[in-house]
Amino acid sequence: MSAPLADRIRPKTLDEVVGQEHILGKNKPLRRIIESGKVHNMIFYGTSGTGKTTVARIIAENCGMTLHRLNGTTASVADIKDVIADIGTFGSENGILLYLDEIQYLNKKQQQTLLEYIENGDITLIASTTENPYFSVYSAIISRCTVFEFRPVTAIQLIPAIQRAFRILSEENNTEIIYNEEVLNTIAYNCGGDVRKAMNTAELAVTCGDFADGKITVTLDSLKIIAQKSNMRYDRDGDQHFDILSAFHKSVRGSDENASLHYASRLIEAGDIVPLCRRLLCIACEDVGLAYPNAIVITKACVDSALQLGLPEARLPIAEAVILLATAPKSNSAYKAIDSAIQDLKNCDSLEFPRHLQNCHFDGKGAEVYGQNYLYPHDFPNHYVKQQYLPNALKGHVYYEFGDNKQEQSALLYRKKITGNEK
Fold first, then answer.
1. CA 117 to CA 109: how far, in whole Å?
2. Can you state the angle between helices 239-253 and 257-269, rounded to 10 degrees?
3. How far is CA 196 from the centre of its chain?
């Protein structure tokens, strides 16, 4: 059984690698390190199909060191000890290079087993991971490595690679392959920056193509079926999940309804509406807040409707909530106020209640101080009377600042009216 096309045509030199110009371009950091011939401990971080394994293999094959390959999904402590056992042998006189794919799947003990040998230089580590290494890799390993981020490849960067794939497939099959620009663009844009997926999609498209007169024609209709939803680079437990939620939240906060709908649609298409609904409720309070207090009521109704309807109909109330929040006036005054109050609470020791706010039932006839002298606001004009409510240690502290929107400015005018602009 032949290997997938992506493996058969894997680049052998840095110039053949698709994308990653920010680290592999001329005079860029990673290229300069590789070309120097001095291999350092490195971690390659990025989504699947961005070239991490390819670059690691290029380094390994050109460094002159004894190469060991392990995969974090299957490697055991015994496998790691086998690598360590090679230290100091005749075959490893130029050093040992350990290429460790998916390092995030090694547990802490397994990673610690490597630590001593990485630190003293007996083993040079090149690891790759699809998860943020600062969360998934043991911190002591991180501190001894340089982290390079591999970014998703753009559709424009993918097109030459897809053309190369068709050319090689044509040579392998000894058959002319017919395709047009729309086929190239469909593969490039539907593969979401994943080179491996683009190569394998091209191979499958040729397999499913129409054969006639000794030629294979790649049809757009069959290609759309093959490539459907492949542009959804998404992992519910990984960085993509949180990146999309973050981009969505910031787009709504920034009052860009179109970007907000884009990121919401990505979550909807991935079927991940529960985190989206939770984020909508948060935005209603954190970012719209008191500028439009009814936003939380409407958003809650939309969220409840979405969860009750389920997909695909859930997209309708979600869209309503997204557009409402994105186009609503914004205020984070309540968010800032509660965080400020909580911070004071953390910074202060135990705080006693003002005497006049305590429960009057605690006062017995023999109490040293009897009576609270609490002033009942409803007994005064405008249902307001000035008295101290904060604990003595926090007297005069201000947490809430009225926002500059119509709703909060109206509340400020009312406050000034009943207090007589008191300080």
1. 14
2. 150
3. 21
Residue with the two structure tokens 């910074």? 347
Q: Is the pLDDT of residue 173 over 50?
A: yes
Please give the model's pTM, rounded to 2 decimal places: 0.57
pLDDT at 235: 55
**Phi and psi, residue 12, nearest 5°:** -105, -15
Query: Is the model's pLDDT at 240 over the cut of 90?
Result: no
Other CB atoms closer than 10 Å to residue 137's CB: what's the count?
22
Q: Count of CB atoms within 10 A of residue 48's CB?
A: 17
pLDDT digit string, tens, across residues 366-379: 555 555 678 888 98
123-142 average pLDDT score: 86
Tens-place pLDDT, residues 25-40? 888 888 888 888 788 8
Within 10 angstroms of residue 202's Cβ, the number of other Cβ atoms is 30
Q: For the chain, what percent of residues have pLDDT higher than 70?
A: 92
Q: What is the pLDDT of residue 296?
A: 95
